[in-house]
Amino acid sequence: MGSGKTVLTVQDLKLYYRTRKGVVKALEEISFDLEKEDVLAVVGESGCGKSTLARALVRVLPRNVHTYDGKIILDGKNVMDLDEEAFRREVRWRKISIVFQGAMNSFNPVYRIGYQVAEPLIIHDHVEKKEALNRARKLMELMGMPGAFAERYPFELSGGMKQRAAIAMALITNPEIVILDEPTSALDVLTQANIINLLKRIKNELRLTYVFITHDLGLASELANKVAVIYAGKIVELSSADTFYTAPKHPYSRGLISSVPTLRTDKTPEFISGSPPSLIDPPQGCRFHPRCRFAWGKCSSEEPGMFQVGEGHLVRCWLYGGGT
Amino acid sequence: MSPGEKLLELEDLRKWFEIRRGLLSSKTNFVKAVDGVTFSLEDGKAVSLVGESGSGKTTLGKTIIRLYEPNSGRILFQGKDVTHIKAEDLKWYRRMTGLVQQDPFGAFASHFTIFRSLEEPLLVHNTVKSKEERAEKVFKALEEVRLTPVEDFAYKYPHMLSGGQLQRVAIARAIILEPKLIIADEPVSMLDASVRIEILTLLRRLQERLRLGVIYITHDLATTRFFSEWALIMYAGHVMERASTQEVLRNPLHPYTRALLTATPEPNPENRNKFKEVPPGEPPALIDPPKSCRFSPRCPHAFDKCLKEEPPEFETDSGHWVKCWLYERAEAK
After folding, report:
1. A129-142 and A159-171 are packed helices; what angle lies between their axes, rounded to 10 degrees?
2. How do residues A252-277 score in pLDDT, each as one tens digit?
3. What is the least distance, in Å, from the CA of A43 to any CA of chain B?
4. What is the ipTM, given to two decimal places?
């Protein structure tokens, strides 16, 4: 995986929201590279900013945005420079599309599924309706759905089938990069496994690159060759999946991994005590230090940068940098 | 009760929901949500009810504590038949059982303080007369769930607490009447991974310390292992397999249990290079489920008999029951 050609570079992405209580620093200092056919799993607890990152990448943002800057470089071009209209025409759904969390429950109940899958083609590419419907049907078949389901309404499909349709909708315009925001979160275990199989298969067949947002580390390992752990709006560890699952470095990553109950090993799961900080007024120093077992002098006063601990392995923790 | 005694016994329990097709139609259909469940639970032990959505696990839980009245079968609690009890008897049974539900954010009246929410069961059941004693009980319950210092939490409103904290309050409310049996219906599925383990560990400690029977309803097989002695695997209203949790996980027999185990994701970077062998399809509609084995349409091992006849439960090993024709001859007895 990862064919060597860089398809997406994110540099210092920052997103703040304005709220009545103050400015929420939802994302800060987000930087990573994706090569073609990479799958980057973005993991973290609820409220850490993973879904915000998904939305920031396709610029689907609420109105109360306070700051939105940094660089998002697609095919060598910084798309942050594009205005709303140009972004919509050239980038969103063309180059990078998204399967939103709960997308399967967001279908319009009064339109047939096939039409809704075809809609991006009709709107973005001005493809003739009949042709668009045809292509939607073919794509749905590739997703393992009977073609006839294109004629059905959303209520006539099961959760698994609706999720397949939602994935088809994200793929209809042939994007290179697909963001998957908790694509299986409302599905049963067996259905989830089937959808993950599907995502693996079409990734290989269509040579796709995924950004896979999930809170489930087990599920992340089903697809990802790279992992970014987000805590309180910042990436705290960025690594290859192989390294991350065998030798995680950041105390938060280690805590997350040891909190997963497993079926096939004998370890007792442990938990990280405390809860994530407020993003309006995050703690001084490392944002994780109030919950960290290894915190020492510097951790509560100075914010650590990303220290390189191996090839392509970055950790935001004073244990791994700053000389001593 | 002495240890090892039966706290709860279910005999062929059924809960069907009636649905009418059309306003004037006289024909009634039934959704067979729980269709013949038998098992028993000893005092102070925990059992996991594992299944996917629509498997009937929540209905079974609610029927056990008599939020639903079963259509047939029997529920024995401490040897007493509670299947159809009414009024005062039912009120007694309510005191003996507690419920923790999935959504902590929807479990509390938003205009009640935590103190008031916890006081409510004491007022309803009128078990404690004086105000001071009630306060003492409330504080003690908060201490049990480690929401300390208790004064800090007692006078807060629900919106001021996190999901994990609220779920602790829900547990405090479930134990405040000193019940013998707790139903925890997906108590952690809305919480973050690290908080999940915290809450489950707390529940487990309370169970051991207060000698509670716990019915842990979940879709997540992986958590059953650390938090229950017994496991029941449910599919489409039937119990497909039941045994000790260790046995179910180490030696799963039913093809459905095996599929569940295969499908449960675990952190391992090698996963990405493999496809999972899981049966396709979806569970049947419970209005008109297959007359034979309910898993047979999806089962990779199904043979003629599976499609024709519903299998009984075979006991393949002491205490290990499986509802599958593959084990007809393997029965121990």
Report:
1. 120
2. 999 999 999 888 777 888 888 888 89
3. 11
4. 0.87
